[in-house]
Amino acid sequence: MLQVTHIRKQYSTVVAVDGISLGVRRGEMLGLLGPNGAGKTTTIRMILNIIRPDAGTITYDDKPFSDAVRNIIGYLPEERGLYRKNKLLNTIIYFARLKGIPPDTARARAREWLERFDLSRYADRKIEELSKGNQQKVGFIISILHEPELVILDEPFSGLDPVNQIVLKDMLMELRRQGRAVIFSTHQMDQAEKLCDTICLINKGKVVLEGSVPEIKSRYGRNTVQIMYDGDGSFVSQLPGVKSADVYENYAELVLDSTNHQSELLIEIARRLNVRKFEHVEPSLNAIFLDLVGADKKANRGSGELS
Amino acid sequence: MKKMFAVARWEYVEKIKSKAFLISLILMPLIMVTLGVVPAMLASRPDTDLRKIGIFDQSAELFLPLCEFLDGHYKLPGGGPNYDLVPIGDTMNTLDQARNLADALVLAHEIEGYVIVPRTIMRDSSVEYRSENVGNTRITGRLTSAIRDILVQRKLRQHGVDPVFAREITSPLEMKTIKVSKAGAQESGFMEVFFTAYIFIMMLLFLVMTSGQLLVRSMLEEKSNRVIEVLVSSCSTTDLMAGKILGLSGLGLTQVGIWALIAAVVIVQLGLTIISLPTLLLTLVYFVLGYLLYAGIFVALGSPVSTEQEAQQITSYFTILLVLPIALAIPVMQNPDSALVTVLTYIPLVTPTMMVLRIPINMPSALEIVTTIALLVVSVIGVMWAGGKIFRTAILMYGKRPTIPELVRLLRS
Fold first, then answer.
1. Residue A294 half-sphere exposure, CB side, CA atoms within 13 Å?
2. Cβ–Cβ gap A98/B7 under 8 Å
3. In angstroms, rounded to a whole number, what is the distance separating the alpha carbons of residues A177 and A175?
4. What is the 3-state secondary structure (H, E, C) of chain A?
5. Which of the 8 DSSP states describes residue B47?
6. What is residue B248's predicted lDDT score, i.e. its pLDDT?
7. Which one of A51, A78, A86 has the shortest CB-CB distance to B396?
């Protein structure tokens, strides 16, 4: 469906995107991961032809961008991209018309979707009267109302409560089942891990990791250890043989240089902490991300969200 | 094309429902009428009360004829005399004494003001009017013409001219102005011609101001909430820009149209014929071309804007540029064939105003009309092209305004 080859974009002195290549097929979901400022949004904008790459090519079903392509792409920008003063239903119909959908069809479909997202009662309200989460749902409806073949969502999960995260996740899986190609960017590794067929990790304008999730995990799988313990485990990242570590209150995930010195490591840790579990595992995407993106991100441990 | 009309329709329909539009629809004519008509009405409103005016007549010759003249010429709406002439002191008083007395009366609001007629009035024709308010041109004007009239008649009589004949030769002159054009001679005053042209220019100004402001606002809004990204990924920037200009022009035209309709009704009601059809059509051509030119400039200037303050600045500078030709209106009216006017006519930015002003006064030559229209069309195309290029990139720029070299590079790319 979409093939991006060696695209590059430079803003005066900053290279925002430096030779990124990626592709997505129909019925496939691609997760675009990376820290802030990595070049995710710039890449997305180039795919949408909002800005043009300085070099490289982007093809849609092996054809270059054309007016027809606009009608088969759906887009949800990170800031939701909604008018504030206009009425909900009218706005949805307008955006659908811009995608070439006749007004009557647009109206019928919009009502259906509003019903589905439990927003029917807001149809004639101004968008600014809606909560942020509801506005996000409206943005999502706009991005898929014209039944696009390629759906691009920039940070679709951020700002949604857990219930709506599940609703959105189900929607994305439905889109994939319908044979659409889906690209979404996210900070939430666990979402990407569970949903995506393939992921593409971008850092500093370059692709640092790409492939299917199981394949990536097995590639990184040998060196990861999970420990659960009681006590202050902050020292574990400093231990010899530890390449990178993601340390929590009484849980840590360590990526080791090699598997040779595991027992020494366990002895060392057990000497200082009460170890409850020490297990050789597949790494989480989060750990891989940390490992690749670098030590400067180590300090940033939240609930799996990196920013 | 379809998408362009979708954009146009959206801009038109959504804005026409807004309160801001309704307010400007009603407020603007209200302000114009208030500023234009009310002061004139107030100034020409007749007095309702008797005005007391003092007179210290050292010559002792003017008091009675002046009383007679004022009573004869100026009446209150009720029929009573407008002015009551009150003698101050008597001729035995010195000038200083009389002045002190009368000044006190003025300050006590006993009298509106007073005239000092010197003994030598018949020789040097000079009087003095003293009042708290010397800006009341109606009183001073009337007194001046009354006294002049009396003096002239008296002098003529001294030279043995028959009083009836004397009155005849001092009767004031009345001037009618007739506008000659190919359509035939037509009675019309300078003011009528002036206002015809003036109204057209004001309409152009308001049209550009309202829809230009809406254009900049709408771009700013879409930029600040990133709607622009969804729009640009749905339709081409050309469709978007053209649609916006079309929709907001429609809005401006609706507004001006409603005003014009009201004006037309008033004109028909009053039985005035101000403008002929060919003049009107030609004026409309300049009107539309001028509007498109300004719209293109607004797009080019407005798309890099990313804050409300910047938008304010740009629209207000631009409005000044538009008001400038209005300041030139009177010199143009007085001398529509001067070199200055000819030069200005060929500067595209002011061509529309100049031509709109000149057409009702004195139809410019066919050559001039054709060349200026051609020049305007070329400028409109150029500005739209440049505006489109700037729009394409600048609409996605945030935070910083592009520098001039950056803009030049944009246009070259």
1. 9
2. yes
3. 5
4. CEEEEEEEEEECCEEEEEEEEEEECCCCEEEEECCCCCCHHHHHHHHCCCCCCCEEEEEECCECCCHHHHHCEEEECCCCCCCCCCEHHHHHHHHHHHCCCCHHHHHHHHHHHHHHCCCHHHCCCEHHHCCHHHHHHHHHHHHHCCCCCEEEEECCCCCCCHHHHHHHHHHHHHHHHCCCEEEEEECEHHHHHHHCCEEEEEECCEEEEEEEHHHHHHHHHHHEEEEEEECCCHHHHHCCCEEEEEECCCEEEEEECCCCCHHHHHHHHHHHCEEEEEEEECCCHHHHHHHHHCHHHCCCCCCCECC
5. P
6. 85
7. A51
Nearest to B396 among A50, A98, A99 (CB): A50
A50, A124, A153, A155: which to substitute to probe chain B, counting the most B Cβ within 10 Å?
A50
Tokens of B382: 């150029």
Contact state of B230 with A78 under an 8 Å Cβ cutoff? no
Instruction: Decide if pLDDT at B111 tops 80.
Output: yes
For residue B21, the distance in angstroms to the closest alpha carbon of chain A comes to 14
What letter would DSSP give residue B363?
P
Q: Which H or E run contains B83?
A: strand B83-87
CB B166 within 8 A of CB B149: no
CB contact under 8 A, A79 and B18: no
Residue B221 with chain A: CB contacts under 8 Å: 83-84
Tens digits of residue pLDDT in B136-190: 778 888 888 888 888 888 888 888 888 788 777 777 777 776 666 655 555 555 6
- Residue B344 pLDDT > 90: no
Task: Say whether A50 and B229 touch across the interface (CB within 8 A).
Answer: yes
Interface of A with B (CB under 8 A): 45, 48-51, 67, 70, 73, 75, 77-86, 90, 94-95, 97-100, 142
**Which candidate, A187, A117, A177, places its Cα nearest to that of A157?**
A187
Complex ipTM tops 0.85: no
> Chain B residues with CB inside 8 Å of A103's CB?
none
CA distance readout (Å), B260 to B12, B25, B205, B254, B265: 19, 12, 14, 10, 9
Confidence of residue A307 (pLDDT cuts 50, 70, 90): very low
**Pairing of β A224-230 and β A274-281:** antiparallel
Say what the pLDDT of residue B43 is.
66
Chain B stretch 167-226, residues whose beta carbon is closer than 8 A to a beta carbon of chain A: 221-222, 225-226
Chain B contact set for A98 (CB, 8 A): 3, 6-7, 231, 234-235
Instruction: Estimate to the nearest angstrom the gap between the alpha carbon of B222 and the chain centroid.
Output: 36
> So what's the pLDDT on residue B36?
64
Q: Which of B233, B236, B306 to mutate to test the interface with A (most CBs of A within 10 A)?
A: B233
Q: Each residue of B73-93: pLDDT tens digit?
A: 888 877 778 888 888 876 667
